[in-house]
C-alpha cells in the first residue's frame, strides 16, 4: 500500500466517522452508517487485501466507540471486520466485469444488508439481544440499506469529482 492510498484510507475513515457523529436520523430513527459507506469506497479504491483487513478492523473499532446501541461494541467490531472481508471478495470477483460505480452500488446495498445481519446475529448471541431477526431485518436493516445506498451515491460522486480535480483517480 503506497503513501497516497494510506493517506486516502485514513482520511476516508476519519470523514466517515465524523459524518456519522454529526448526522441526525433521517426517518423513523434510522441513520445511514457513513463509516460503512466509506469502508466500501476504500475497498473499491484499494484493491489489496491488507487495506481491506486494516480498514475493516479500524472501521469496527470506530463503530464500537461511537455506537448508541446497548452492548453493541463487540458486535460492531465483528460486523465491520467480517463485512470488509466478504465485500472484498465480492469486489474482487466483480472488478473486471462491471464498472466501478455499479460495483459500488451493489457493494453498498448488499454490504449494508450483510453488515446489519452480522451485527444482529452476533448481538443475539454475544449481547443477548432478544429481538426477532426477520422483523428487525425488514424494519431496520432493509431501510438502512436503502438509506446507505442513496447517501452512498451522493458521497461517491462528490469524492470522485473532488479526487479528479486533485488528479487522484479512483
Would you write up a description of this structure?
The protein is mostly helical and 170 residues long. It has a single domain, classed as Arp2/3 complex 21 kDa subunit ARPC3. Helices cover 78% and strands 0% of the residues. The chain has helices spanning 3-22, 34-45, 49-66, 73-94, 100-127, 133-165. Helix 1 (3-22) packs antiparallel against helix 2 (34-45) and helix 3 packs antiparallel against helix 4 (73-94). The longest helix is centred in the C-terminal third of the chain and has 33 residues, at 133-165. The model has no long low-confidence stretch (mean pLDDT 89). This is Tryptophan transporter TrpP. It comes from Clostridium fallax. Keywords: Membrane, Transmembrane, Transmembrane helix.
Mean pLDDT: 89
> Which outline best applies?
globular
What Rg do the Cα atoms give? 15 Å
CATH level-two architecture: Orthogonal Bundle
- What's the N-to-C terminus distance? 15 Å
Q: Note the main sheet.
A: none
What is the overall number of helices?
A: 6
SSE topology string: HHHHHH
The name CATH uses for the topology is: Arp2/3 complex 21 kDa subunit ARPC3
CATH class: Mainly Alpha
Keywords: Membrane, Transmembrane, Transmembrane helix
Protein name: Tryptophan transporter TrpP
Transmembrane segments: 30-46, 53-71, 77-94, 101-127, 133-156
Pfam family, one: TrpP
